[in-house]
Amino acid sequence: MLEIGRVDRFPTAAHLASYAGLVPRVHSSGGHTRMGQVCRNVNRNLKWAFVETGSLVVVNQRGLAGTHVVRLYQRIKRAKDSSEGGGRRARHLAEAAWWVLTKQEVYREPQSSRLALSSTHG
Fold first, then answer.
1. Rounded to an integer, what distance in angstroms lies between the CA atom of residue 34 and that of residue 91?
2. Please, which residues bridge with residue 28 across strands?
3. Which of 17, 85, 107, 116 could bridge 76 with an S-S bond, Cβ 3.0-4.6 Å?
4. pLDDT of 59-87, one tens digit each?
5. What is the distance between the alpha carbons of residues 67 and 30, in angstroms, rounded to a whole number?
6. Is 8 in a helix, a strand, or coil?
7. Do the Cβ atoms of 13 and 119 come closer than 8 Å?
8. Is 0.90 surpassed by the pTM of this model?
9. SS3 58
10. What one-character-per-residue DSSP string does 12-40 give?
């Protein structure tokens, strides 16, 4: 919360993830879309915190078995190369942080049986 500051300056969860450097640049031309590297002018401390937290999920998945974030990790691991999963986990955590801070509520596990890859991109 100290690194984020006032959460109301971010209109959506995706804006906070972008501020933390967890969203790649998008290059589109002639119907082709290519994902590039993330911008350099990001909040590096915030990015580090979300990436490290995502890594802790992987290390402690036995102790966290059955939680939403472990199911998310396992789904990403099956769907994509596991090396790409770090940024995806970190982005999900950033988006979850935005929702918690915006609603000013304690985090609750999702009740839905449908597991979304992202809180903003279903």
1. 19
2. 33
3. 85
4. 888 888 888 888 888 887 777 655 556 77
5. 42
6. helix
7. yes
8. no
9. helix
10. SHHHHHHHTT-S--EEEETTEEEE-PPPS
